[in-house]
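ugh ok so i messed up the first submission bc i forgot one of the chains. this is the corrected input, ALL of the components this time, i swear. 424 residues overall. if the numbers dont match what u have on ur side tell me asap before i send this to the collaborators (the ones from the other lab, u know who)
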Amino acid sequence: MSENITEKKSTGTGTIVLGIIAAVAVWYGIYMQLLPFSEWFSYTLLKQSPESHLGSAVQFFVYDTPKVLMLLLIVVFFVGILRSFVTVDRTRKILAGRRESAGNVLAALLGVVTPFCSCSAVPLFIGFMTAGVPLGVTFSFLISAPMVNEIALVLLYGLLGWKVAALYFATGIMIAIVAGWVMGRMNLERHVEDWVMEIRAGESGLEDQQMSWKQRFEYALGSVKEIIGRVWKYVILGIAVGAGIHGYVPEGYLAGIMGDSSWWSVPLSVVIGIPMYTNAAGIIPIVEALLGKGAALGTVLAFMMSVIALSFPEMVILRKVLKPKLIAAFIGVVGCGILLVGYLFNAVI
Amino acid sequence: MKIQVMGPGCAKCAEAEKNVRAAVEEKGIDAEVIKVTDFKEIAGFGVFATPAVAIDGKVMVVGKAPSKKEVMGWL
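and heres the new structure output, hopefully the right one now
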């Protein structure tokens, strides 16, 4: 009897795995055709010259839009599978009672894969505090969660190559670890709103349920639908603006304002970035175009990181649990980390 | 029956409330749907990700908006 059940289960899983392999193969086949198609479409069908403004803008748009959307599809799906193994509650249990240092590293890494939306920042903060997770470790998590994000990673890889994507990933994690650690050293606990410390959290509400592979698969597909449904407009809009800059702004035009020769361009881009509220999907195609026109990589990355990691609305949400001084410390420490990364990239590349 | 929908008011929380109400209506049962926005109260349920839904005090889902079909399965 029990043998039968195991057999049935494994066939189900087998079908799903085979289906995924087949889908990836089809995906790859289409993906490889995107560049030739965009060139044929722009230069043969529309008879534009590759050197003309319009021709290069159109080709950029026709190539990058499906490429980015396809990359998003595949990455969001596999991140979804990964996320079906992690829940906020499990993360909270893993981090509870961790010492700093190792705790900061673990929290930064878990921040990347734990699924939670920005409006959960406050309940999550309360959950971590009541579980006895140190404040600095909690911050490592809260910094890495928005900063190192799969959509940003896909866009950077798709538009700028794996080296930039890897640098972004590594420095994002480093900022989360170091900033959380520094904040832990600053003894800021008394700047958490008093009511948070008085809360006696109930026992974790939902027992961990084991998901079947079919459920994980459905969960991942659901997150693909949800995320792509939400960001596709920004991706297309961003790529359209990027295409315009790509085709029409002269090469080297931005080297003066956003280049690496001026020391103030990095802090300026951080200051401009903080109050801006957009997501990675909208900002990165623009980043790519800026880079192509002579802006320095460090400056542009600093701008992007401050836009996605230090957003004003998130500060307003966190104000419910943090006193102003702690918020200021948060912005200050993370801002400094981003500045350093900006200067580092400008110096190295 | 008392159904509590927990969430500070983001889009997903609104979706959770909408689906719960639709499910209650379709089942035609007498249930009170309450929106919980107070973080202290939410933490009291042991819930650290929103939206979340509890039926008669028992947490059914955390961190995602349930579909109408899912909610109907619980009722």
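quick check: Residues 1-8 of chain A have pLDDT under 50 and may be disordered. that seems consistent at least. The radius of gyration of chain A is 22 Å.
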